[in-house]
Fold these 3 entries.
Entry 1:
Amino acid sequence: DVKVTQSSRYLVKRTGEKVFLECVQDMDHENMFWYRQDPGLGLRLIYFSYDVKMKEKGDIPEGYSVSREKKERFSLILESASTNQTSMYLCASSTIRGHLAKNIQYFGAGTRLSVL
Amino acid sequence: KQEVTQIPAALSVPEGENLVLNCSFTDSAIYNLQWFRQDPGKGLTSLLLIQSSQREQTSGRLNASLDKSSGRSTLYIAASQPGDSATYLCAVGKGNTPLVFGKGTRLSVIA
């Protein structure tokens, strides 16, 4: 089974701290994604990556950066955490190898981040 | 820009009832449509994926249909159980671009 692991289920940080959220997948997927999920707003795409050292902005990249130095790991960085970044963060991975139409996304369990 | 809408936002049904969740999308040029389940405080689990060339997919008590020309999909759940209580999200995909998600339908099945 595909496994997408997020390093923390719950995090509490203070305003202004630099925060790292880590995501690792074990299926050699080339695509990885970071979303945040807020009540009433649904899932919003922050950043995604199609390969090592590649990154693309999603719908709400402001205040975030990402790093993908290895294929299996995609890190989300909050350079200076703010209270409006309190949210559930979800990582996902996918592949199109074999069949373009079968681009199934697999999600991690999520990290609930509280910024105080 | 693709937009995905799910109606209703919330639904409560008695155990044993058959039910239908709806998903609509504005751009019919999609490659596939996925239905996901999300339990409270957890990540998303893929339930069914329908390719654009398919009309429906079935898994156990779940049946998902796709009418690409009208921009609609339905998720049919037969003989609902309390364990089916969760939020159900649909998402459409086009090639190797990120999925576009609806906001979900929160389902409660009452014993």
Entry 2:
Amino acid sequence: KQEVTQIPAALSVPEGENLVLNCSFTDSAIYNLQWFRQDPGKGLTSLLLIQSSQREQTSGRLNASLDKSSGRSTLYIAASQPGDSATYLCAVRRSNFGNEKLTFGTGTRLTIIP
Amino acid sequence: NAGVTQTPKFRVLKTGQSMTLLCAQDMNHEYMYWYRQDPGMGLRLIHYSVGEGTTAKGEVPDGYNVSRLKKQNFLLGLESAAPSQTSVYFCASSPRGVEAFFGQGTRLTVV
């Protein structure tokens, strides 16, 4: 059974700092990995999707990397801003053959201190 | 483009009552999912569908039923609500094997 872990559960950093969020998964046979952002009381917003054949994806100040063989992904946020405060979730999709459900980590709650 | 829309956004039920949550997507996605989110548990898959007329069980299907009569709609039913079903419910859709898009959630309280 796939298990996804995100450590730490919470992180506080001063505004302007660069930071890295971690995601690890137990089964390396994944099809893709997706990073989401969730604001309090809101739904999930997709940030980045990395296919299993890719090493990284970038969108603005965000960069996600994937090391499938070691079961790890990181989300790098450059020059953090108070608006980046949210819970960040990673999710892995195991296969692309009719059983494509996402398995989620429990998230990292990020607070950017002004 | 509305994306994924969930109805209702909030609901309070008494134990034993029934209700249906509606998820509608306008992106012509094949796959649709229902998740529940509980503190400290993350998102857990209840049921999912890989196409119109198909449904399958996820991790926590007990107490729930689903139907996908039309490609754009995925309904989640609670036949006899229990306090343990108090949660935030999220619907998602995706094309085959690609990015998943989520609705804004339904906050359900069973008293």
Entry 3:
Amino acid sequence: GENVEQHPSTLSVQEGDSAVIKCTYSDSASNYFPWYKQELGKRPQLIIDIRSNVGEKKDQRIAVTLNKTAKHFSLHITETQPEDSAVYFCAASGGYNKLIFGAGTRLAVHP
Amino acid sequence: EPEVTQTPSHQVTQMGQEVILRCVPISNHLYFYWYRQILGQKVEFLVSFYNNEISEKSEIFDDQFSVERPDGSNFTLKIRSTKLEDSAMYFCASMTSGAYNSPLHFGNGTRLTVT
């Protein structure tokens, strides 16, 4: 069935360092790949997304890359700040307009 | 900026009781969803709804679950006979159009606690 694997489950970095989170998906028909940030007790919020006709997208300190052949995509956060600390979820489109989420990565940025 | 709104924010119920979780999607959105998140785990798809009918449902969405759009604004999730394992955060979400031409917007969630 449809599945999204996400690694690592936890990530600890020093402020100013880069953070990379990786996801793989199983459904070759997936064509949309958003990333969500979830702070404790709050809703997931979209931070960046990429569609299958694009290999890379950047928005200030965050970027996402997509390798359709290998069926994996990654989130890159540069110059991390303490307020980047949260749980990050990748997702892939599947079925009839639904999103399948990865298990999440808890990012801790230490001052 | 328009938001998806959910009520209540927290619902406590006893096992075996029925609960109804309510959502008001963004007004010009056409696709509606319920997701759930057990504490500390991933966000799981439950059901999608379009044109007044279910488009797709997961294996979690068994006969105990139902959804309804009783009027032009509300979108509800009913659990007929709650179980302990139904305790989770339930998120409603909506989207303008299909094929992800627009982002999926989540509500703030309803935390359901079954005792």
